[in-house]
């Protein structure tokens, strides 16, 4: 057999394997219980999302809603590796935009369901830190921030510091972390003098992960210094047409859901400026 024939056979085999994988994926999706909805949600918002999920289950007992909480970066990585949730909930526009651009989330299904404010916070032991400008003082040597390329909180935080003319002067002090919780933990453990995070996420909505007793809010970053924080819900491409999935996404925009999340630390859509 010639080398050309061998290459042709290999190419054909690879094509057959790819086709088989596609059929298996489509088959697994079509075989999924139509009443089952799998949601991937950011762990920093377990309280407001969990409360909304509880309200949804009471209103729609016929829908089997399952929620998996983890860092948005981790959830995105799992989707890229082949996980097949029906709904993705994002703590900001950065993560959702990436999944849309990569073809995982149907862009026309993305909707805002809430918003958050950004704050500078610090260990209670950090002295002489009372304003945002105080971050430039020599005794403030380390500032924790989630990486702005991967996390919305870091993205918005960098935008705010740039707008305030502080990013360049603080660049050598900023410790970028892969996950927002890592940045928060650096502050709660006293490993840095300050950090930037969402006001209620995770300081209020995940108290099991960040001890509020050890930190204090220094100042809120001015809202006009960064784009509106858009907590978003979107449907994965393979679930866009399923009725139960659409029902959940629409519920997150309902008055009931908005009141529920507002009572649990997340600002409602109307606060998105």
Overview of this structure, please?
The protein is α/β, with parallel strands linked by helices. It has 2 domains: 31-115 and 229-271, Periplasmic binding protein-like II (D-Maltodextrin-Binding Protein, domain 2, 3-Layer(aba) Sandwich); 118-225, D-Maltodextrin-Binding Protein, domain 2 (3-Layer(aba) Sandwich), CATH 3.40.190. 38% of the residues lie in helices and 19% in strands. It has 9 helices and 10 strands. The protein has a 5-stranded mixed beta sheet with strand order 2-1-3-10-4. It is elongated, with a radius of gyration of 22 Å.
What structural keywords apply?
single chain; 273 residues; alpha/beta; D-Maltodextrin-Binding Protein, domain 2; five-stranded mixed beta sheet; 9 helices; 10 strands; elongated
Quick summary of this structure?
This protein has helices at 3-31, 46-59, 72-80, 93-101, 152-163, 167-170, 180-188, 243-251, 255-262, and strands spanning 36-42, 64-70, 87-90, 111-114, 118-123, 143-146, 174-177, 194-198, 215-220, 231-235. The protein is of the alpha/beta class and 273 residues long. Strands 2-1-3-10-4 form a five-stranded mixed β-sheet. The chain has a five-stranded mixed β-sheet with strand order 7-6-8-5-9, with helices on both faces.
